[in-house]
Amino acid sequence: MKRIADNINHIKRRIKEIAHTYQRDPDEITLLAVTKNKTDKHIQEAILAGQYWFGENYVQEGCKKILHFRSSCHKMPLVWHFIGALQSNKTRVVAENFDWVHSVNSVKIAERLNQQRPKNNERLNALIQINISNEDTKSGITPRELDALATTINALPNIRLRGIMAIPAPNVTEKHRKQEYANLFALYSQLRQQYPHVDTFSLGMSEDMEAAIAAGSTLVRIGTAIFGARNQ
Ligand SMILES: *Cc1c(COP(=O)(O)O)cnc(C)c1O
Known about the structure:
Structural class: alpha/beta
Radius of gyration: 17 Å
Strand content: 15-25%
Bound molecules: pyridoxal-5'-phosphate
Number of helices: 9
Order of helices and strands: HEHEHEHEHEHEHEHEH
């Protein structure tokens, strides 16, 4: 289990090195530890290593962990991100328990999250998921739809629009990926110009962390490189 702490420290060092290589401020890049299929013990180990931001993909699994750590680690400033595909019948659990959602991809989802966010909670931080590769996957909007969805979310009182998120298409060439990341960064920059409080570009996983930071990512979502493979 000590390996988890070592891995976290290693990745934090790598983030700094990569930031310097690409002339970026390392403080602009945050590490999100992705804990889907991992146990409370794994998470506990990461917390002991100073990792407080966690990403979960499944509503029930994530919620159970949040409740567990809210009682056992209530003094730690833990921040929980929902990063999985979100169906509209699951929005309530997310609105009531998570701090961030990365996968907002429709007006309907956004409006439900807004309505279901408890009034005494802070606003729910939201990222709009972009489907860059225009594949038939259902998650993510096309770049053309961004303007309208951002306008809607920005008007919702219980949600705070923070930026965009993307998952790269598998099996693309290096050149193609670079182009996609550049397109995403352009969208993010445009959004920031319209909404000055937008500050988050969620891009990069264990395999593409360097390419994502080179492209301007501010939040890298790392699972395997911290906790090992997810073989159940
Ligand atoms: C699982 C997952 C990750 C982490 O991927 P690794 O390759 O294990 O680092 C990041 N983002 C999303 C949306 C995921 O589902």
